[in-house]
Amino acid sequence: xxxxxxxxxxxxxxxxxxxxxxxxxxxxxxxxxxxxxxGLAAFVTFDLNQVVRYxxxxxxxFFATLKIADTGGGTxxxxxxxxxxxxxxxxxxxxxxxxxTLSTWSVTEITYSGISWVTTPVSSGTGASAQGLAxxxxxxxxxxxxxxxxxxxxxxxxTWTGTVWQGEMVWAGMAxxxxxxxxxxxxxxxxxxxxxxxxxxxxxxxxxQFRFDGAFPVSTITVPVPGPLSALATLSGTxxxxxxxxxxxxxxxxxxxxx
Length: 259
Fold this sequence. Notes:
Oligomer: single chain
Low-confidence stretches: 223-243, 247-259
Structural class: mainly beta
Strand order of the largest sheet: 1-2-3-4
Strand content: 35-45%
Largest sheet: 4 strands, antiparallel
């Protein structure tokens, strides 16, 4: 954990600790509020099929760790996301995983029931590896937030119908594997035009964006687009540059979110 210290203009670090179980590389992290305690927690996926919740205990101080899900024996947990995927006001955790030997992949929903953590399959398949994972909201009139994930050279989506998870192909046959995903989930969209989009960072260094046209597959526009941020290195690069993508609001006084 790195916290900015204005008095020294530095970022001192705090070791959050190893996961409970086999030590393996951490593959992704997201901040969310799902779980028994109030406040925020960090959810981390580890290469050896673990999804772990880190909650900060201020009086100690240290991070309490809890394995909330196992993505399956022999799998590599790839990405983690948090959001209200069912539109019922309950925040849940989502994790993607891949089995390198069996060539299978899966996306799992993890819900805190008040007593324990319960897993629900969102989507799965064979012959490829799940990579990017994000929450987004392309359907403006939907109460739920969709789950977006990338498999091979495609971006797919699952939305909660009220009883089951329904999958859709967002875009197939991209030029390279989209490993990083993020999506608009609020009125302040990245482009400031009120149109919600999903963004994908590809292996070949390109950044693509998708918007919903009323039917699948959606329209796609590659970026950078003309503007003051178009010269930033994060919008162009080599095949090794696009392993993640995200956006947050940079200027509180503006309606446009940062890229």
